[in-house]
């Protein structure tokens, strides 16, 4: 890096020609707000994709780096940008159980019902990974508990399939339809039984 920072005309090329944008590399290790700030000041493109179309934005969400996420938001990161699987930063935060970051995204206008390529919402991601606190927060924010993915699975189906008793119980308390079937006519009970999740069944 040059003494006075990266030349403006070089910044995007340098960020996009590598597998990971430099800022993403720093986020894989820890929440390094100062490192992020330095790279921003150097002029790096925070939305530069890596090999899977993920940016620093997704890494911050995945690792629960709230301070870095806020900084990226302040720099104009696209809150609805998707990776190759159609997941937004909200999906990544939900999958990894980062309630504070997920809440921040919603406060900044993220679409709680946005779906990935297979029709999963953030609530589905929280359910399949057993993150009860995140799922509860989504429901409090108005997430549709009955929304289905491309295969007809609801959030309850996802919780049952992966054996997350606390999440499944939460959904039932909040009005999930235990008799709802997916496109193959399977209920959440079928999923729990098939996978041997006796506590959920």
Automatic annotation (TrEMBL):
Superkingdom of origin organism: Eukaryota
InterPro entries noted in UniProt: Ankyrin_rpt (IPR002110), Ankyrin_rpt-contain_sf (IPR036770)
Chain positions of ANK repeats: 52-84, 85-117, 118-150, 151-183
Name of this protein: Ankyrin repeat-containing domain
Alphabetical UniProt keywords: ANK repeat, Repeat
Transmembrane segments annotated in the record for this chain: none
Species per Swiss-Prot/TrEMBL record: Lasallia pustulata
Gene3D superfamilies linked to this entry: Ankyrin repeat-containing domain
């Amino acid at each position: 890096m040059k003494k006075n920072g990266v030349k403006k005309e070089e910044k995007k090329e340098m960020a996009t020609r590598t597998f990971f944008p430099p800022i993403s590399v720093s986020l894989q290790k820890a929440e390094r707000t100062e490192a992020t700030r330095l790279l921003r000041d150097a002029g790096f493109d925070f939305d530069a994709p890596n090999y899977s179309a993920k940016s620093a934005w997704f890494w911050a969400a995945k690792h629960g780096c709230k301070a870095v996420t806020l900084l990226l938001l302040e720099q104009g990161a696209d809150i609805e940008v998707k990776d190759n699987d159609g997941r937004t930063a909200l999906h990544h935060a939900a999958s990894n159980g980062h309630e504070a970051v997920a809440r921040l995204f919603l406060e900044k206008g993220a679409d709680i019902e946005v779906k990935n390529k297979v029709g999963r919402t953030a609530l589905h991601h929280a359910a399949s990974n057993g993150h009860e606190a995140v799922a509860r927060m989504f429901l409090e924010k108005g997430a549709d508990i009955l929304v289905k993915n491309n295969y007809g699975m609801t959030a309850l189906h996802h919780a049952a399939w992966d054996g997350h008793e606390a999440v499944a119980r939460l959904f039932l308390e909040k009005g999930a339809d235990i008799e709802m079937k997916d496109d193959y006519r399977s209920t959440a009970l079928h999923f729990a039984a098939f996978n041997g999740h006796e506590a959920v069944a």
